[in-house]
Write a structure and sequence with these properties.
Layout (H helix, E strand, L loop, with lengths): L3 H15 L6 E4 L7 H5 L4 E7 L2 E6 L4 E5 L5 E6 L10 E6 L3 E6 L3 E5 L2 H5 L18 H9 L8 H4 L11 H11 L12 H20 L7 H9 L4 H4 L19 E5 L2 E5 L10
Antiparallel strand pairs: 1-6, 2-3, 3-4, 4-8, 5-7, 6-7, 9-10
Helix pairs in contact: 1-7, 4-7, 6-7
């Protein structure tokens, strides 16, 4: 499933392509959304907003299209009406005279007609703060970690809960905990104030780095050196995620992979020792 940075990158690309010109056509695959095709054709997209892993495409007539890629959804931006050869099913499309934004395979698509509908949406209303929000500061996130409803939960579980922090998924969770040097089984209550601030700061900075550098969460200098040696993007992208049994870049200890609630997590047992209060 795409995580917050990938959704934000897609949103930026869609906005650059679609916002400059009025729509010439809007397509929905689902019958209950078909009546809105005419309502949105001829309108302008004012903003493509992300909230965690969800996307809101706002139109100048007051309507917004809510989409969530879930596991299989994929956005493509191409020349106008230039459809790719794919076995995926087109679910939603926005066309203008220059470009087309095409959403394939996603099934969670809704029309929201007011700000009140957006704020009271069953999924959006329960989201925690967006990890990429400019309003989210380390001090705010540190306070959330210390809150009664979060402080006794394992970090491995807490960091996949979109009600706590929106936009974090498998790879960001592993990378953030490594940078903070915290074992996945630790809880906020096991941590010092300094550790919690470090974790909060890492949560924001690693997510933002992933957004800015197209998914690279490794130390950037190290990633550049590995790239110069001929390693592939997949090989230099991460610090620990997907690197089971490979040496930690910091201490050379083999990286461990574990399954938590059927989701894989990676960590270094030396850099991230399990300690408790």
């Amino acid at each position: 499933m795409p995580e917050g940075p990938e959704i934000r990158i897609a949103a930026d690309k869609i906005q650059r392509a679609i916002r400059p010109y009025p729509t010439t056509e809007v397509f929905f695959a689902f019958d209950h959304l078909k009546p809105f095709e005419a309502d949105l054709s001829g309108c302008r997209v004012t903003e493509v907003e992300t909230r965690g892993k969800a996307m809101l495409t706002h139109f100048d007539n007051g309507l917004s299209v809510y989409t969530h890629n879930q596991l299989y959804g994929k956005w493509m931006v191409r020349k106008a009406h230039d459809f790719p050869e794919t076995n995926r099913q087109l679910r939603f499309a926005i066309h203008n005279e220059k470009k087309s934004a095409l959403l394939y395979s996603a099934s969670d698509i809704q029309i929201l007609s007011s700000q009140s509908e957006i704020e009271n949406h069953p999924f959006l209303s329960k989201l925690g703060p967006d990890v990429l929000s400019k309003q989210l500061k380390p001090e705010v996130l540190q306070a959330l970690l210390s809150a009664k409803k979060h402080c006794c939960r394992r970090l491995s579980t807490l960091y996949l809960d979109q009600h706590f922090l929106a936009g974090i998924g498998n790879y960001l969770r592993s990378e953030i905990l490594f940078v903070a040097q915290l074992h996945p089984q630790m809880r906020p209550i096991d941590c010092t104030d300094e550790q919690l601030f470090t974790l909060a700061n890492a949560s924001i900075s690693i997510a933002y780095q992933s957004y800015r550098y197209k998914g690279v969460t490794n130390d950037l200098d190290l990633a550049n050196r590995l790239k110069a040696k001929g390693l592939s993007y997949r090989e230099y992208r991460y610090r620990v995620f997907g690197r089971v049994n490979q040496p930690c870049y910091a201490c050379a200890t083999p990286i461990i992979k574990e399954m938590v609630s059927n989701r894989r997590i990676y960590y270094c047992p030396t850099c991230q020792p399990l300690v408790s209060a």
